[in-house]
Amino acid sequence: MGRQHILNLVREEFEGRPKSVFIPGETYIPVSGKVLDSDDAVSLVESSLDMWLTAGRFANSFEHKLAKKMGAKFSRLTVSGSAANLLAFSTLTSPSLGDKRLRPGDEVITVAAGFPTTVAPIVQNGCVPVFCDVTLPNGDIDVTQLDAALSPKTRAVMVAHTLGHPFDLGFVGEFVSKHDLFLIEDCCDALGSEFDGTQVGTVGEFATLSFYPAHHITTGEGGAVMGKFKRMSPALTSFRDWGRDCWCDPGDDNTCKQRFDWQLGDLPKGYDHKYIYSHIGYNMKMTDMQAAIGLSQLQKVDDFIAARRRNHAYLFARMQDLGLDEYFHLPLAAEKANPSWFGFMMTIKETVSLDRHDLVQFLEANKIGVRLLFAGNLTKQPAFKDVEYRKIGDLKNTDLLMNNAFWIGVWPGLNQEHLDYMADTILKYVGNKIR
């Protein structure tokens, strides 16, 4: 039995699976999910037949095509979006950057309304997060607070594009350029988003992506770092690959043509370059089987993004038609923003007597998946109890989102029947509570 025959059988089996049927009130509507087809299954099985297992030809191709898609000079695959954030930030501490490297005690501007592993690398590297507030309705960094957040210790900005809505790239880009700061864009929820015609992930030194099943494309577990400058690639790759100085791909030797001729540190001359370490690193490589799925998924990403935008626009219009904008801040895109939406965030207005806790329980009971805005306010989280940080003002909007916001799905696996049911169910709840 040849390889092609095996792959044909895989395609046949996958395409023969029964299609699911949506029954309102009985079928659970996940807040996010993966969309996989027979091409993904074939790509996965083909890579498994190679039995290479670690990063190989599929990973190399995925890195190249992903960088091209994102407008980056290079990309490096890793084990998750959180790992991508850690690798990107750690690279900015590399001695190869000289006096510009980040050091313990340096300050990094970010927000507290978001996912913890956007901020965790700041703390893990001994730096100090400085929390700005966010704006309504989308939870993006309030760029009017950047000047107040700036201090002589400020060295970088690290912030996410919240739920796919891009922050003001023009303003932030000018700010970091003016003050000679590093910028890391966490694009894990925002693959394909644009601001004023500029694609997210192209302004900062680094951009990060997640390929967890909830995200725009998936490899199961997985993530990537995109780089704006090729000179950053060796240090980033080193941090990902044990901290080693050697840059050979798995299975390759002596790419530098002087494997036993190096003299680094206090090691004896000629010490094997494969075992010389220039950073305190990790092992965070992606497998070729994961990359094979990502490579297949990348071919469909434009359709996925279009579906997310289409679902979000339909749901927004439906909410407005039902009058729900009277009770909720609805996620309206900023004037120059073209989001690749990750979710549909709704925030109960301050003047409305609705209880978020009761509402999300009602939705879950009616088979509608709900999530809060991740950590809400990181300064309130137990993990940050003893963390050194600064905050700008009282983080009023951050607290409002922590207490009043939730989001529901717009991912490509949903259709108008799902969206209508979600909107109608929310209207039903509001009608029962406000008379």
Describe the structure.
It is globular and about 80 Å long. The mean pLDDT is 96. The chain has helices spanning 3-15, 38-50, 57-70, 81-91, 116-124, 146-149, 169-178, 233-240, 288-298, 301-321, 356-365, 396-404, 416-433; strands at residues 74-78, 107-111, 128-132, 154-160, 182-186, 194-195, 198-199, 206-210, 223-227, 328-329, 337-338, 344-348, 390-391, 405-408. With 435 residues, it is α/β, with parallel strands linked by helices. α3 runs parallel beside α9 (288-298). The relative contact order is 0.17. Helices cover 35% and strands 13% of the residues. The strands form 3 sheets. Strands 1-9-8-5-4-2-3-13 form an 8-stranded mixed β-sheet, sandwiched between helices. Strands 7-6-11 form a 3-stranded antiparallel β-sheet, with no helix packed on it.
